[in-house]
Amino acid sequence: MNRRSHFSYTLLILFLLLRIEPLFAIERSEAAFKTLASQAQFMQLIKPSEQLEYDIASLTSGNELQARPSAIRLSEALQVFWSSLGVPNLVGALEGDEDLLKKALALEPSSNDYLATSNRVRYLMWLSKTHKWQRLESPVWLKEGERSHLIPEISERLILLGDQQEPEISDTVFDAHLTRAVLHFQQRHGLKRDGIIGPETLRWINLLPAMRAKQLASNFIKKASYLASIEAQYILINIPAFELTLYAHGEVELYSRVIVGKPYRQTPRLSSKISNLVINPSWRVPRRLLTRDLLPKVREDGSYITDRNFDVFDNSGGAVSKTPQEWQELASGRFPYRLVQKPGEGNTLGRYKFYFENKYNVYLHDTEDKALFDKANRALSSGCIRVENVEGLANWMASHLVKDKQTWVDMQIERQTTQWFSLNDSLPVHLVYWTAWVDKSGAAQYRNDIYHQNSVVSLALATY
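Structure (tokenized):
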């Protein structure tokens, strides 16, 4: 290559670099704006303001001169927002780096489900702006084979929400495609999976997309901030989901359906540690349960106490014995005794009890009534948590935490003797209350606010 050609080639390279560098800069700015806008959508759903709405609009306007001041303002606001809520990110590692894209990416929450949740929130907000979501009413329950003028609209909504994959059909017949979609929808909302559109399913179908987005955003923040500071090995019980999950070093070791407290006997939110495990527990009946639950049964049947293997004690600890008629009469007035149910078949606590210190006197335990786990709404207990996969949980603890493994083995055939087992190390247990999340498959999961602790969403559902 001669000098002239080399000079021309150099000029060409310089020309291309001058053209490409601004292009890279523009792409980086656009990426920064989109990243900040997605995060700001969370903030707008939680703490709405006119300034925030203006800044989000600026970032999506396509005008970089207008967007950059908003981007700088939002990056500062988001840093305060995430930090104040305890949501972890990596912005502290930048050490003064002023690159806007780097800062926008570092501001993103470190949670594994953030991007999936953010994408879902953004989509739902788009739905709220582009589609009418009027209230649907049906005087009857709808099921496969029936006709209704609501079918096309219901089908369209299930397609938009990701539950129906088949193309929209304008026919008013409830067909098999719609049944599959309803079943999927019911699974995502913790409803009874019967493929029938009754009042509860229709209420969730009517819930506005913006309210869905708000529920996802607020629960994501609660979840991300909570999980940021807990141990590597723990049990997590999500109360409105009726689920228990055992984690060890980020991996799921065990899953179980659970039964939690009724709305008027709520299972509390708390953190504690399982310190011991009991095989064949006896049940010391709390006074409030004795008054509310057991004495009415004794008034109906004086044999209830002996039939259910209860021992009765007076205030000094002495055993008390009465005839069925005498128990019936005593149950109608002031009952000065305490009841303790013997271990064995028919014991209310079942085979196992897992104790963790708390002021509410709640714990994990087995149950004799296994059929209740098949119910969609499992807010059925008096506050304690009944575990379906109780054998799996007990055996995992025996394998990993129980000190006296030989006695554990020896006790497997024993049903009448109570045995306490101490642990090599306590197992943290966290009782939380999250009503919405995005699962590992990317599907948005919603649950009923069984204790009415999320007032905005509960009110929105109540109106439908």
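The CA atoms of residues 404 and 421 lie 7 Å apart. Confidence is low (pLDDT under 50) at residues 1-6, 16-21.
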